[in-house]
Specification:
Helix content is 31%, strand content 22%. The chain is an alpha/beta fold.
Length: 361
């Protein structure tokens, strides 16, 4: 804030509010603003009915509630005196928690101030995980593996997607997890290509395949994993693609290092695919930064910070990624695996341990 000349920063992204205050609830469907002055006490602004939750969760900010006849902009107007009527205010213009109408209403409350786009200030801080955050990731990864094992155990011909989902959810919760940003993605062969849909009442047939992607969640930290499970038997092409996917995943691990551009990590993945005779096949990324997630996503907000072919991001020790080695719709068979990977002082550490080979049920 000092470097950008900001006297006040208004945080509206739920993930960033959680990161700075610890507020962990389902109330983020209504706008929240965390007013962060350059000096002095933070103020958390949202519906008055959240007073008890805020008192229980938040120790480092004063609460300013508003009635349901008002908006959070009205609460901001009341709080302006406490933060000194700043002349330069930063706002997260790309936040999912800031509707356009609310942004305009906030600006009307301080119409003489200069309003600046401060998107990314907190998001960038969150990319490198502290030792405490890394411990949460490892705990979440352990729960991810338990949920995956339960889902795989429930997978068989005749089983419904919803039954598999129920067994997966049960295991995740009983292992100590809380509600994740996404529920588990569970899709049988007919819907393999659907990116963000999940279970239906459809039942698995013999020689079917099941797409499984899920995460445990501990203190809002996520450690996703994904697998493609085959029912009864798998075609030879699945084994061929599994070999390529695993080799490409290992190439990502070999490229992940402090100071490396993210585009070089993607290039390492793509080289393996190219050498396997699939130079035509391209992915939008081979992974993305992961950690804090608030529904409706585990990606950390409405922006996906990906290991892309054109990314300028530099990888640093302490970053964590959901690494995906995904070969679907290649014309030569399908396979998919993904794991959460933490770049530690001694190199990349694969946190999720569910077996990666072709799995038959």
């Amino acid at each position: 804030m000092a470097q950008r000349g900001l006297e006040l920063l208004l945080i509206s992204a739920p993930e960033n509010i959680f990161y700075l205050s610890g507020l962990d609830h389902w109330g983020y469907f209504a706008p929240h603003i965390l007013a962060v002055p350059l000096e002095g006490e933070m103020v958390l602004l949202t519906r008055a009915m959240e007073k008890v939750t805020v008192a229980n969760h938040v120790r480092n900010a004063r609460f300013e509630g508003h009635s349901d006849k008002e908006t959070v902009a009205d609460a901001f107007g009341r709080a302006l005196g406490a933060v000194g009527r700043p002349a330069r205010i930063g706002i997260e213009t790309w936040s999912s928690g800031l509707p356009h109408g609310l942004a305009l209403a906030l600006q009307r409350q301080a119409s003489t101030a200069e309003w600046l786009d401060a998107s990314g200030i907190v998001d960038d801080l969150r990319l490198v995980k502290s030792p405490a955050e890394q411990a949460y990731l490892r705990a979440a990864a352990r729960i991810s593996d338990i949920g995956a094992a339960a889902a795989i155990e429930a997978t068989r011909a005749g089983a419904s997607e919803q039954h598999i989902a129920a067994e997966c959810e049960r295991a995740l919760l009983e292992a100590g997890g809380t509600f994740p940003g996404f529920g588990p993605f569970i899709r049988s062969r007919a819907r393999l290509g659907e990116e963000h849909t999940s279970w239906t009442a459809a039942r698995l047939a013999g020689e079917d395949a099941l797409f499984l992607e899920l995460t445990g969640c501990v203190a809002r930290y996520h450690a996703p994993l994904g697998r493609l499970i085959h029912v009864g038997r798998a075609p030879k092409e699945a084994y061929d693609m599994a070999d390529v996917c695993q080799a490409a995943f290992e190439a990502v691990l070999g490229a992940l290092a402090d100071g490396v551009p993210a585009r070089d990590v993607y290039a390492a993945w793509q080289r393996v695919v190219d050498l396997a005779g699939m130079a035509h096949y391209r992915r939008h990324h081979c992974g993305y930064a992961v950690g804090i997630g608030v529904p409706p996503t585990w990606t950390g907000g409405n922006k996906v910070t990906g290991l892309r072919h054109d990314s300028d991001m530099v990888v640093h020790t302490g970053m964590s990624f959901h690494v995906l080695s995904w070969l679907m719709g290649t014309g030569r068979g399908d396979y998919f695996l993904s794991n959460t990977v933490l770049l530690g002082e001694n190199g990349p550490e694969v946190l999720t341990r569910t077996p990666a080979q072709v799995t038959l049920r």
